[in-house]
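Service request form, structural biology core

Requester: graduate student, group of Dr. S.
Request type: structure prediction, single chain
Budget code: on file
Notes: please return the result as structure tokens.

Sequence provided:
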Amino acid sequence: MDWVYVPPQHSTCESYWMALLEEGPLSDAPAPGLWEWREAPPTSPELWDEAERLQRDHVIMQLTIEDYNRGGLIGYWKGIECFIPASHLLAYPFPADPAAREECFKRYLGRDLRLCIIEVEPPRHRILFSERQVEACEGEQRSWPDWLRVGAICEGEITSVRPFGAFINLGPLEGMVHISEISWGRVRHPKDFIEPGQRVRALVLSIDEQHQRVGLSLKRLEPNPWDSVREWIRPGDELPGRVVSVERFGVFLELGSGLEGLLHISELSRYGTDSAIPIYQRYRLGDVIPVRVLDIVPEEHRIALGLCESHGEVTGNDDKAERHPAV
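Core staff response, request fulfilled:
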């Protein structure tokens, strides 16, 4: 867990610092309170990744000024402290005496400023912004190509793979594929399907020109198996299913490419399964279980399963288990 060195809750009066410099530590000026180490609020790596991308793409942001200190203004973005140094303010008077500086900062309180990121500092749990560099950032923003629109199919190289998805270099900018858009089947981690350096084709799902964001999908370039599920399985069919997840309420089984069904715990008890043994001890990932299709609801992506009446022993996790043809 990270820790940060923070000032007291109230802003430090400028007169205290001047008295300290002129009269020494025995000054009668009111002390600002003690600084202390505090535990920094948890910040997900995804937020720091987003901040670095916003800096890299020269995105102009709007920030509300909530406080200030001797060096500049303070605001917050998604719970992260943001600092705008005095030297990066358009209206900062140069040179400024302490009283003029504090008066300048007070006029900023509550205002919304257009800013751009100049530095991202995860170890210090803060982001540095600039008001003076906004014009330069606007000039350096990457142009939005005409071909990049919702519904377009593009090709690019995967630059990084994270637990929540992957980033793809589209040339003028980067797009992101969320983990839910990688495959129609279960995705435990994107790295099981894609890797940095790999070239892929993707469908553009969304565009945010203001924040230079592009949402992409890999799976939607492939047929949705739920659209044709009734063509190859029907209620009453018996087939093998491979365990992909064990929950307290039942077992999820992979039936084919991108399709899963639920073997509810109530179905297990119907066939004399020992309920005293926890379900997670009875079934393991990769086990193959002969099941019967009870119901299919394609629009809800749901298949209800039961054990075959003549079900035998569960087949262990091996690659030789017979599989039903994939969709």
